[in-house]
Design goal:
Layout (H helix, E strand, L loop, with lengths): L1 H33 L1 H18 L1 H20 L17 H20 L2 H8 L12 H12 L1 H20 L20 H34 L6 H21 L1 H26 L2 H23 L7 H6 L1 H21 L6 H27 L5 H10 L3 H8 L4 H30 L5 H21 L2 H8 L3 H21 L3
Amino acid sequence: MKVSSLLNISRLNQLSRESIGLVCCCIMASAFLIFPQTAISLVAGVTSYAIHEFGLAFIIIPSVFVVLAFAIALSPWGRITLGKDKAPEFSFISWVSMLFAAGMGSGLIFWGVAEPIAHYANPPAFIPLDEVGKDTALALTYFHWGLHAWSLYAVSGLVMAWFAFNRSRAMTVSASFTETPRSNGYQLFDLLAVIAVIFGVAGTLANTIALVQSGLEQSLGFDIGGLSFRLGLLLAITFAFTISSTLGLDKGIRRMSLFNLLFVIVMLVAVLTLVDPLAVVMTIFTSSVSYLQLLPELSWSIDDSSRGWSEGWSIIYFVWWIAWAPFVGPFIARISRGRTIRQYLLCTVLVPTATTIVWFSVFGGSVFEMSILPDVVQATSSDFTLGLFTFFEHLAIGKILIYSAILLLITFVITSADSAIFVTSMMTGSQAIKSKLMWSLVLVAITAALVLKNNIDLNKQIAIFGALPFTLILLAQAGIMIKELIKHKE
């Protein structure tokens, strides 16, 4: 009787946690659909205030996580296995492809040309005019997409993996703080993580739809329907990621991630053969050197004369990565059982960072070596979504590349969305298909409101809204992880 009562209480707590999360997010989703202008303006105002008032903190926190990730990886703690006596569940290639695709795949397509060109055309004031060029523009881009982003993901995932596999707790944010399953007080942390995930992915999904529309219109040469097209594409993507998420981690997400990885390699090689490969190799080297040289200056301070640039780029990016940490963190934790802490941290930080450097060097870096540079600068200044497709139009198989990029954008965002639904269901204690369908509807409702506005900069601000309160939780988790490692005995 006692065991039965405990089981009933556990089921009630699980239902309560799931229901509270769904009710809160449904209320927000309804507000965005019924009062899109008011809701978006309110959220954007909150994020703008936080970015301006606490900007330096959002620069320093990811920098601390970079130091922490390498310190743990290179320490004796790096030999500890996540989940003792367990071989890795996935092969190395499957593992890397899943963590990379879930983390920032579609973003690389979106910003691969646009961001380096934007930094070149409008550099921060702390960069001397005679130093503004390809390597500096790329280095500033790496600062946003490299070590800092992936260290946030890696440490967040390490905490999740440690308590799940080495302390036999649930893979939730609250489990980092208490041994009591579904402790009511700490369930608030799970709810904040879910909000961060939903808003972060909604902003990315809305930006992806805008880029797909821009690519098709530029390729076809006419307006393809505006709002009706964007909403139709959103419904199609929703159908795809909902089906994928219901298939589960192995059948759905893993296969889609492997497809994305192969597609990325094919596109990368195709573009590389159409530009100057030797120039790209030199760009990878010289821009990486510039990146390492700029890191100390960029990581711990904000130049007063460049505050506008920092708030518009660096701070928004880093808060965005924090918003994605409760999504990417537990996801890469879930697929990393059997890895040592050293392998987990070094691969999670360095492999995607290296891939990011190669990607931006091939796409953005190649533009600097071509006569089309002024055209791409003009196109990017007019609309960020035009940079990539203007670049492709001047290559030999431009049309094929445009359509390939559009397809890759869609498959990447499907992978990110179904991974988000998987993690959200895990955080709220239910992997039932009904729960996944409900979370899919919430995600779509918020995205639909953003699609109605169709403002890329606004999408970025909405995407980081959920990260603002979660930042403190992430810092607390890092502190708990250090304490756990100090107490650990082999």
